[in-house]
Amino acid sequence: MNEAMVFLGQVADGRDNNLNLIRFLAATAVLVSHAVPITLGETVAEPLEAVFGRSLGSVAVFIFFAISGFLISASFVRSSSGGAFWRARALRIIPCLVVSVVLVGFVLGPAVTTLPLTDYLTQPKIWTFLPRNILLALPQYTLPGVFETNPYPTVLGSIWTLVHEVGCYGMVFVLGLLGCLRTSNRMMLALGAYAAFWAVTVFFDIPLHIKIEQFRLLSFPFIVGMVFHMWRDRIPLSIWGGAGLIFGTVLLRDTALYTAVFVVTLAYVTLWAAFAPGGALRVYNRVGDYSYGLYLYAFPIQGLVVWLWGPMTPGWNILLALPITLILSVLSWHLIEAPALRLRKSVGRRAV
What we know:
The chain is mostly helical and 352 residues long. Helices cover 70% and strands 0% of the residues. Helix 10 crosses helix 12.
């Protein structure tokens, strides 16, 4: 079959794809991106920002949200009930998050804090650290006396996106209940409302609360992923289509449309890379999905590396932190995340 005539819907079923590998690379890109502020301070711009207008970490997060929009839409359509949908989401996110927050707050924190252990454990911030970060309500990014001398004194710097990820799940749930994920006309109405909100805020430069602005930005690649799932049988996967979108994005670099076109292009190229190339790349699926653990553990480990060895370049931070973070993410997958996924399937079968 001609590559230009292969449609997304023809190849997007099942688990034989490159999504695990792409998510792993995206999580690694976040670690690489964070090495700059963690070692040099938050005022230092990452070199790639001049190229894309976004940091490498931001581009990686866009990839995560585009993939999530595609997969979560499919998950809702397959779910037997709203409860099954939320149960699947909770078992994917919460177990690993709980363990990581406990380890950071009650293992890493006591080991590196400048406070005596008794003082550390009696600080109010210790006992708000767990509920605020586990419930993702007003996440808390610092701990008393921890990494205070680091250029970037933050112990958790990545989980802020999880709040918006869950918000996007809520958006899928509402649109699903309204029938938008199964009816094109209803989906078009929902997209029209979203596009109007996006256009008004962009073209009229309306100031938004930081949380709303973050959700507006991250929900867009998620929405694009949803659109790709909704019309997957009409979207051809072609390397030439991706090249054309990239060319158009370059032409619109200095316009108000750049961010929107960049995200659409990034989502298309990501899904092409996920489903079109086969062969040896698919071997990675036998390993596991280490991206979530890598994403959660990278920031505290990168801070720990600076605390242990002092001032360093971003390159050294990556070199020292990546192996430790990878070990933790492998353990997280095999001991926590994979068993939770098996539990989800077991509960789902009993419910059916």
